[in-house]
TrEMBL record:
InterPro entries: UPF0231. Belongs to the UPF0231 family. The lineage of its organism: Bacteria, Pseudomonadati, Pseudomonadota, Gammaproteobacteria, Alteromonadales. This is YacL family protein. Pfam families: UPF0231.
Length: 126
């Protein structure tokens, strides 16, 4: 996973990733940037999963942020926007408009090793 760390004069330290991993960048830029408690929980979960995957553990870890959640299991990390989890009733209201929900920017996944490398670089940059 390729990433770019940069300083923005308005928004501070930022992470930029490819389009398919845009939600991962949002996790770092929006959820973790000013939330040390969430950052600590996330880092602890990554460390637990990293040691567990070598022991063939299968417990799923879920970390919830304000706008998204992260699911860590089997050496993989799944980022899901809360917008992905909606009721069918909500969608039925728009059925006559023939609108389709674009889920491409609502979910992203990556391997635990790549994410740990990004996390270490980000913390050193931050």
């Amino acid at each position: 996973m390729e990433y770019q760390l940069y300083s923005d004069p308005l928004w501070g330290k930022r992470v930029k990733l490819s389009d398919e991993h845009r939600l991962v960048a949002r996790w770092f830029n929006d959820e973790l940037y000013d939330n040390d408690q969430l950052l600590q929980r996330f880092q602890q979960a990554l460390n637990e999963e990293s040691s567990r995957s070598s022991l063939n553990g299968a417990q799923e870890l879920v970390i919830k942020g304000k706008e998204m959640r992260v699911v860590i299991a089997y050496g993989e990390v799944l980022f899901e926007s809360h917008g992905l989890h909606h009721d069918e009733q909500d969608l039925e209201a728009y059925a006559a408009d023939e609108l389709v929900l674009d889920e491409s920017e609502l979910v992203a996944a990556c391997g635990i090793e790549d994410l740990i490398a990004l996390m270490q670089a980000w913390q050193g940059f931050r």
